[in-house]
Amino acid sequence: MFKGFYTAASGMIAQQRRTEILTNNMSNANTPGYKADQTSVRAFPEMLLQRIDETSIPVENKLNLPFEPQIGSLNTGVYLQETIPNFRQGDLRETGLTTDLALQGESVFFTVQNAAGEPRYTRNGNFTLDLEGYLTTASGFYVQDTNGERIQLTSDQFEVDGSGQITENGQAIAQIGVAYAQNPNDLIKEGDGLYRIDGAALPSAFGTDEAVFSIQQSFLEGSTTDTARTMTDMLSAYRSFEANQKVLTAYDRSMEKAANEIGRVT
Length: 266
Description:
Blueprint: H1 2-27, E1 37-43, E2 47-50, E3 53-57, E4 63-67, E5 70-74, E6 78-85, E7 92-94, E8 101-104, E9 108-113, E10 119-122, E11 128-129, E12 135-136, E13 142-143, E14 159-160, E15 165-168, E16 171-175, E17 178-180, E18 188-191, E19 194-196, E20 214-217, E21 219-221, H2 227-262
Antiparallel strand pairs: 1-6, 2-5, 3-4, 7-21, 8-20, 9-10, 9-13, 9-17, 10-19, 11-12, 14-15, 15-16, 18-19
């Protein structure tokens, strides 16, 4: 009986967490470069139940042999195993702003620098110029060039070619840093569209044969959230949560009867 409580409760917790992730995907449906999280729900290992009994053989010494008939398997619940971002290429939309940049190609990321001076990676190319003319993200993190330096410009009247080379007033200023992730699933989300990786920094995408990409100026990459599919999954998660809740309520009523009626001393 108590195992049923745990099984139903684990289902509720898993579906609640899944609903939170889907809600976050929906709220970022219009966030440039956002990669929607995909969830993986997995069952705990099953238990095989057996009844321990004895069978007596009618001999002089009354020999007993162990006999364990199988009752069946018992599921011990589910859990949300992991969340995996969907790193597929998002749709590009034109904005007309020279500071907006979009990456075309998978497994490549813009290289930026956080407040602590550590490298971070993003697909959100919604950049801007701060008061000192540095190219930054919307959160104020500095965009890096291929040498790991900040990019300073005099105005927003600059040009960026497909390889990320920045030209201002006919002069080459810098080349935007682009990193390549051989396995994007190793990246860890930090919020604000930023990713980090434990250990060594990602290698540059320039000179890497596997990295095939281009940069589009005055464009932004859209989110990979499928709003219609996300709404359907949210409804499914809610119904699953509701079903487990009803099971839990039924167990609770059964335990109440066992305690107040069956166990009553008359």
